[in-house]
Structure formats: structure tokens, C-alpha cells
Design a protein that fits this description.
Layout (H helix, E strand, L loop, with lengths): L2 H20 L1 H6 L2 E10 L7 E6 L7 E4 L4 E11 L4 E3 L1
Antiparallel strand pairs: 1-2, 1-4, 2-3, 4-5
Length: 88
């Protein structure tokens, strides 16, 4: 095999391996789902909090106030289908 073919195969193998690593979170998510803590604000300045929500694996979310389009969301955990997982 000539050097050009070897180099091409090496680059191809590296690219395929990189795709597997890049898609790992998506594959993990098929066995469960992420949970979030969300803060809702009155407007786009996000200075006046008007609501809050905290998701859980084993029950409905805790929340208060109102939901708006202006929010900040933090991923706080991962729940596995069939049980297991939880807040980080």
C-alpha cells in the first residue's frame, strides 16, 4: 500500500473515531433523560425573578411563580429509564 493510501485510511479512521466520541452524550440520553433547574424572569434583562422549577427523577417538578419565555436553565442531573440516576 502506498503512502497516500495509508495517510487517507489513517485520517478516515481518526474521523470515524471522533464521530463516536462526539455522539456519546446523545447515545447516553437514549437510556434516560436530563433534569433541569430553571429560573424564569419578567423580561429579557433577567433581573426580576418571577418563577422557578426544579425537576426530579422520581416525582413531578417542584415549582413556584410563573413561567415566561425569559429563563435560565441549568442541567442538574440525569435520570435513567426504569429507575436510577438523579441530581449531580
Amino acid at each position: 500500500m502506498n503512502n497516500l493510501k495509508k495517510a487517507t485510511l489513517a485520517l478516515l479512521a481518526t474521523g470515524i473515531a471522533g464521530l463516536g466520541i462526539a455522539n456519546a452524550p446523545a447515545i447516553a440520553q437514549t437510556n434516560g433523560y436530563y433534569i433541569y433547574e430553571t429560573y424564569y424572569y419578567s423580561d429579557s434583562s433577567k433581573t426580576q425573578e418571577v418563577g422557578w422549577e426544579f425537576q426530579h427523577c422520581d416525582r413531578f417538578a417542584d415549582s413556584y411563580g410563573q413561567r415566561t419565555a425569559y429563563k435560565t436553565q441549568y442541567r442538574i442531573g440525569f435520570c435513567q429509564y426504569g429507575g436510577g440516576g438523579g441530581e449531580y
